[in-house]
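User: Here's a chain of 164 residues. Predict its fold as tokens.
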Amino acid sequence: MSPSSSSTARPTTAPPGYTERLTLPWWLWLAGLAAAALLAAEVWMGAPGVRAWLPFAALVPGAVGGLWWLGRIRVRVHDGELLVDDARIPVRFVADVVPLDVAGRREALGIGSDPLAFVVQRPWIGPAVQIVLDDPDDPTPFWVVSTRRPVELAEAILAARDAG
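Assistant: Prediction complete.
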């Protein structure tokens, strides 16, 4: 086969995806588990029998489950969609993405915020992105999503939109 006639197509490069889980920081885990252990000790108060172990057996695993549940949210850009927990939107409806620092997030979610905005905000994560939408069938003007890497998320959304 000659070099000029190639039977293989040029490889297309897909835009890089983005995945992030909005987990709790270690100090919130420590505080939550300490609070559960303290509450269990308060219920126990030196009593014998079931009251000695039942509060610890119920409250500490319950605290672990609750803390895990608080940090379960995933943010993904995959296959032309932005997925935030169970919400999803095709990136073709994204008009612009603005990375926000703590002050910018406070302003976007403050008094001037639109009540129809979709917000996934975690107080233990400072930065966020504001995703401005252009969908005539959706009344939601924008999304505000907490992220630890706002510039990377904004670039991944815009790259996925431009690739589509």
